[in-house]
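Translate structure to sequence.
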C-alpha cells in the first residue's frame, strides 16, 4: 500500500563511484569553476599515502591547493573557523574534503563560511545558512558517515561541551567521489566502527517516523549491503569487492538519513562525543542493540524485516519474536567485528548517566524521529542497560 505521508527530497550531489574514480578530481574541480583548492584532510591519511595521491592529481593538472590537515576525530567549531581564515588567506574558491566524517564536515562548513558572514557557531541549527558555499567536493576514505551526500555538519561546541549540527541545503556537497581503493588501508577497528555507524544510519532512517517509500529503498539496500559485507571487509581489508559494497552501503545510508533522519541512537551518542570524546561511530555501535531493544514495540514489523535481511528465519514466528531477532543479529554483528558489548568497556562513568540523558533529549530532531517516544527515565534505563551489557 502506498502511504499517504507527504515528503520532499532534494539531493543535488553529483556522484562518481568506482575504483580509480579519484583520478577525475581535477576535471571535476574545473567543471565546478574552481581554480584554487582548499584541501581538508585527515592527518592520518599522510601515512597511507592518500594525501600525496590526491595532491599529485591536482599538481598534474596545475591546480594550486592549500592543505589543511588539523582534523580531529570529534572536531570542535574552532577547527572550522581556523580553516576559514587559512582558506581566505589563500583565496580558495573550491573546497575538497578527504577522509572520514570529521574531515568532510569541516570541509562543508568552510565552504559555506567562505560565502556567509560570521563564525561556525552562528550556523548551528536548522535553516540558518542563507548563501550557497563555494563548490565543495567530498572524497570519503571510510565507509561510515555518508557525509558526502548529507546537508549536515556536526561539531563539538567548545563553549557548552556538547555536540550540535549545522543543517541546511547549502551544505549539500556539489560532488562526491567514492573510490573504494581509498578505503583499503583503513584499519580493521575503524572499518568496524564506521561500518556499524553506516548501518545505524540506514536502520534508524528505516524505522524513523519520517520514513517514506524512497528513504526505505535507500535504507533497505544499505542494511543488506552492510550486514553482508562488513565482516568480509573487517576480516580481509584488501577485499576490494567487500570494500566497494561497504562504500555503496554507506552512501545509501547517507541518502536514507538525509531524507528520513536518524533516531534515538544518535541522540544518545552525542553526549558521549561531547563529554568524553568517544568516537561517533563507536558510540553508535555500542548503543545500537540496546536502543533497538527499547524501540521494538514502536514498529515490530520493521525490525522483523531487518532481522530477515540479516539472515534470520522469521517466517511463522509471532511478530514480536521475529522483531527480537534483530537485536540478536546486531549483537552478533558487533561481536564479529570487535565492537565492545557495553559502555562500561568504554570507561563511561555511571554517575554521569542522568546528565547524559538530559542532554540526549535536547537533540530534538532525532528524538522526534524515533519510533518510540522516550522519557528521561527511559533514556536513563537504556544507558544503564548499555553500561551493564544487558537489558
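Result:
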Amino acid at each position: 500500500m502506498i502511504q499517504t505521508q507527504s515528503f520532499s527530497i532534494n539531493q543535488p550531489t553529483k556522484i562518481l563511484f568506482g575504483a580509480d574514480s579519484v583520478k577525475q578530481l581535477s576535471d571535476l574541480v574545473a567543471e565546478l569553476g574552481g581554480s584554487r583548492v582548499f584541501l581538508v584532510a585527515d592527518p592520518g591519511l599522510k601515512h597511507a599515502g592518500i594525501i600525496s595521491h590526491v595532491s599529485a592529481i591536482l599538481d598534474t593538472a596545475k591546480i594550486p591547493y592549500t592543505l589543511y590537515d588539523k582534523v580531529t576525530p570529534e572536531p570542535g567549531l574552532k577547527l572550522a573557523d581556523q580553516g576559514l581564515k587559512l582558506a581566505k588567506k589563500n583565496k580558495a574558491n573550491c573546497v575538497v574534503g578527504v577522509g572520514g566524517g570529521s574531515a568532510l564536515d569541516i570541509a562543508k562548513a568552510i565552504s559555506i563560511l567562505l560565502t556567509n558572514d560570521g563564525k561556525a557557531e552562528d550556523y548551528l541549527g536548522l535553516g540558518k545558512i542563507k548563501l550557497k558555499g563555494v563548490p565543495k567536493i567530498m572524497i570519503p576514505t571510510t565507509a561510515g558517515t555518508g557525509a558526502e551526500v548529507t546537508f549536515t555538519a556536526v561539531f563539538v561546541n567548545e563553549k557548552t561541551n556538547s555536540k550540535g549540527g549545522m543543517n541546511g541545503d547549502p551544505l549539500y556537497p556539489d560532488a562526491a567521489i567514492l573510490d573504494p581503493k581509498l578505503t583499503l588501508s583503513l584499519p580493521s577497528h575503524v572499518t568496524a566502527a564506521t561500518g556499524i555507524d553506516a548501518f545505524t544510519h540506514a536502520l534508524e532512517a528505516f524505522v524513523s517516523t519520517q520514513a517514506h517509500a524512497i528513504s526505505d529503498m535507500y535504507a533497505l539496500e544499505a542494511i543488506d549491503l552492510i550486514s553482508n559485507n562488513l565482516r568480509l571487509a573487517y576480516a580481509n581489508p584488501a577485499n576490494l569487492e567487500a570494500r566497494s559494497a561497504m562504500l555503496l552501503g554507506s552512501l545509501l545510508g547517507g541518502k536514507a538519513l538525509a531524507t528520513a533522519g536518524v533516531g534515538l541512537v544518535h541522540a544518545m551518542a552525542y553526549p558521549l562525543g561531547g563529554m568524553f570524546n568517544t568516537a561517533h561511530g563507536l558510540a553508535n555501535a555500542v548503543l545500537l542493540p540496546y536502543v533497538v531493544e527499547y524501540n521494538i514495540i514502536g514498529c515490530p514489523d520493521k525490525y522483523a524485516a531487518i532481522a530477515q535481511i540479516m539472515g534470520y528465519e522469521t517466517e511463522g514466528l509471532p511478530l514480536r519474536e521475529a522483531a527480537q531477532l534483530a537485536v540478536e543479529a546486531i549483537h552478533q554483528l558487533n561481536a564479529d567485528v570487535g565492537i565492545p558489548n557495553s559502555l562500561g568497556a568504554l570507561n563511561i562513568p555511571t554517575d554521569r548517566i542522568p546528565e547524559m540523558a538530559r542532554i540526549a533529549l535536547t537533540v530534538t530532531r532525532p528524538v522526534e524521529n524515533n519510533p518510540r517516544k522516550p522519557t528521561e527515565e527511559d533514556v536513563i534505563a537504556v544507558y544503564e542497560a548499555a553500561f551493564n551489557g544487558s537489558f
